[in-house]
Specification:
The chain has about 500 residues and is an alpha/beta fold. It is about 40% helix and about 25% strand. It contains 15 helices and 19 strands. The strands form four sheets. Strands 11-12-17-16-15-18 form a six-stranded antiparallel β-barrel. Helix 7 links the parallel strand 6 and strand 7. Helix 6 packs across helix 14, helix 9 crosses helix 10 and helix 10 packs across helix 11. The chain is elongated and about 85 Å long. The relative contact order is 0.10.
Length: about 500
Amino acid sequence: MKVYTKKEVWFITGSQHLYGEETLAQVGKHAEEIARTLDQSEQIPLQVVYQPIVTRPEEVYDTIMRANQEQACVGIITWMHTFSPAKMWIRGLKSLQKPMLHLHTQFNRDIPWESIDMDFMNLNQSAHGDREFGFMVSRLRMERKVVVGHWQSAKVSLEIGKWSRAACGWQDWQGAKFVRFGDNMRQVAVTEGDKVAAEMKFGFSVNTHPVSELVAKINEVSGNQVEELVKLYEKTYDLAESLTAKGAKRDALLEAAKIEIGLQRFLEEGGYKGFTDTFEDLEGLKQLPGIAVQRLMAKGYGFGAEGDWKTAALVRAMKIMGKGLEGANAFMEDYTYHFDPEDSLVLGSHMLEVDEALAEGKVRCEVHPLGIGGKEDPVRLVFNVGEGAALNAALMDMGNRFRLLVNEVKAVAPKASLPKLPVARVLWKPLPDMETACKAWILAGGAHHTCFSQNLDLEVLEDFAAMANLELLTIDKETEFRKFKKEIQWNEIYYKNMEGIN
């Protein structure tokens, strides 16, 4: 079953007319079989659609222009079955507006040692046809993913599947809208950024709406709607005694439900894919949205606290990329450390807004004072996050470019029940170790807000960064601090000179 039911990638095969109709008929037949087999792979979460082979510049251009215009198409896969003179690809490639994967394969897996002749050689020329094509893509300075191997191998399908997930995340950004309720948290730097540059580069827009507009939408919510949602809360979560029907804080739960309904309605009516808020701008709200934000993220919306629109956009993209995979992607923050020299750990959490999609076991609904924001006690969901491999990703505006920073981590079981910590939380060991990971993160200017992922790996984010033309820095088990520091220095030179390369 395809996870992205309305998304597809186009399989485009290059050849040339000099081989004659009989050979071209074989090329088309083979290409169609490869596309059909890839389409049937469980590793590839969308449709792979065969396109007629291209042998002339006009055919290349027309096919790529159709791909650009087809909303369902999130990218193209190219393959040269035979030799395909690369100059015929120039106009089409210069017009391409979708991500590209170059599949370096050949129809036959093995050389037929006893029967191979020049007819076979003329037909099966991927070994140098793809090199001709590869030169032109490199000469045009175009980003693409190159996958090498036989088209029937599971590894090839897995790599194509990861790339296609990144392509779906990238397409979701195109024309996306994110709303900022209020402005940035005052005097905070990393959550700010150039929204105009982001729209030019990434395709999504960020605009501010006053909290009063959200409050007006919340005030339209009826009592019956609130009661229905509260019934769902009661059915879904373990409610604290104070939030039950006769509890002393029942009104706080009713208000939280009202906020959720109004907030979701605002997002739906505005066509927004994510949002931010800040506890420094709550005019008209009785409590800082807690459970509302957690539940809306679980439904697929991106979120960033304190006006952090870059993290809201990243959370949304990573949710799209991880669709259908076991585990989840959610807003996170490195909150405090456990500096035991034998077992150093990070406690990840936030004041209220960690996505319940990460929860392991029963989720508890509680209400507590926040101690910040000056409003009534907010309702929130409290839970632990399970063990396993994970990663944290952050998006920063570095002035002359945006940077995506990723740290692989290993989530571990809580050391205690944390009875007095009324927030969602996760413990993790950053790779390669606490000291190296933290030094590298700080040196790279990594944000304190991240997207925590249980189901995406570095390869997917590498593909996404290439599509977005993002600088990517990774901290993993192989990271050595001195080399990482040099990589940052080399990148500064690279990005300062990139604009002069045509």
